[in-house]
Amino acid sequence: MPLKKYRPVTPSRRFMVLSAFEEISRTRPEKSLVEPLSKTGGRNNHGHITSRRRGGGHKRQYRLIDWKRDKMNVPGIVRSIEYDPNRSARIALIQYRDGEKRYILHPVGLMVGDAVLSGKGRGIPVKPGNAMPLRDVPPGSDVHNVEMRPGSGAQIARSAGSSVQVAAKEGDFSHIKMPSGEVRLIHLDCMATIGKVGNLDHENISSGKAGRSRWLGKRPKVRGVAMNPVDHPMGGGEGKSSGGRHPCSPWGQKSKGLKTRKKKKGSDRYIVKKRK
């Protein structure tokens, strides 16, 4: 996906690098596949801020994505490739032979007019956009939109440019290699989509100005060392200080190196190799 660089006619344009949106073929979403999306501003049901630095942003509608790909053995045609403000990836509008329309994540190489298919068995072609159980995916293939439990809907490899690799198959499980290097066991009946999620250049985008973050609903971040002692453990001091202690959150939790992952009962048994 090409990027667009701007001439430095203003300070904000100097470092701005944005998507060219050349792959987008339709500007308005399918009305039957959108829902209202309300904002929380980072507040919970009591009105207390539970996620800092959220608020504002442009109004959005939520696009209903087909995470399960359970429209089995019904051919579909890609009608359009669209921008989705709720995720980094693009989405593709699929119209099936029976007339039903659904959104899927747009993989690399899928074009308007291409055919996609979901199903079980060896008869499903192994090409980008087609969905099948891990049981039918050849070892070494790159897949995305992977379920963690059969029928639960995809949870793995959904952001722009991401994919996981089917490393091997053993018994009822497949060895899935994550981008982090972790190798995890996932049941062979879980659905996965062939290929890599599109919009590969998303990681190279540079906003160029603070206002663009505000349009996305992201509020400013203030460093702890710039605060007063009453506001942050690293605040205060004469002149510019380094905080005087290990970096931490406003509530004292260390922010570098502290392991915060909770060990749920039985979850580690599915990890064959831990991430680097």
TrEMBL record:
**GO terms for cellular component:** large ribosomal subunit
What range(s) does the Large ribosomal subunit protein uL2 C-terminal domain occupy? 126-254
Q: Biased composition, Basic and acidic residues: where in the chain?
A: 267-276
Q: Which GO molecular function annotations are given, in alphabetical order?
A: rRNA binding; structural constituent of ribosome; transferase activity
GO biological process terms, semicolon-separated:
cytoplasmic translation
Basic residues: bias regions: 45-59, 211-222, 256-266
| A UniProt-annotated Pfam family | Ribosomal_L2_N
Map out region (Disordered) in residue numbers. Answer: 31-59, 205-276
Which SUPFAM superfamilies does the UniProt entry name for this protein? Nucleic acid-binding proteins, Translation proteins SH3-like domain
- Xref: SMART domains: Ribosomal_L2, Ribosomal_L2_C
Decide whether keyword 4Fe-4S is in the record.
Answer: no
> Which stretches make up the Large ribosomal subunit protein uL2 RNA-binding domain?
42-118
Which keywords does UniProt give here? Ribonucleoprotein, Ribosomal protein, RNA-binding, rRNA-binding
Q: Does the keyword Ribonucleoprotein apply?
A: yes
Entries under Gene3D superfamilies matching the protein: 2.30.30.30, Nucleic acid-binding proteins, Ribosomal protein L2, domain 3
Report the protein's function. Answer: One of the primary rRNA binding proteins. Required for association of the 30S and 50S subunits to form the 70S ribosome, for tRNA binding and peptide bond formation. It has been suggested to have peptidyltransferase activity; this is somewhat controversial. Makes several contacts with the 16S rRNA in the 70S ribosome.
Q: Which family does it belong to?
A: Belongs to the universal ribosomal protein uL2 family.
Q: Known PANTHER family for this protein?
A: LARGE RIBOSOMAL SUBUNIT PROTEIN UL2M (PTHR13691:SF5), RIBOSOMAL PROTEIN L2 (PTHR13691)
UniProt-listed HAMAP family: Ribosomal_uL2_B
Q: How does it assemble?
A: Part of the 50S ribosomal subunit. Forms a bridge to the 30S subunit in the 70S ribosome.
The protein in question is named: Large ribosomal subunit protein uL2
- The organism is Candidatus Glassbacteria bacterium RBG_16_58_8
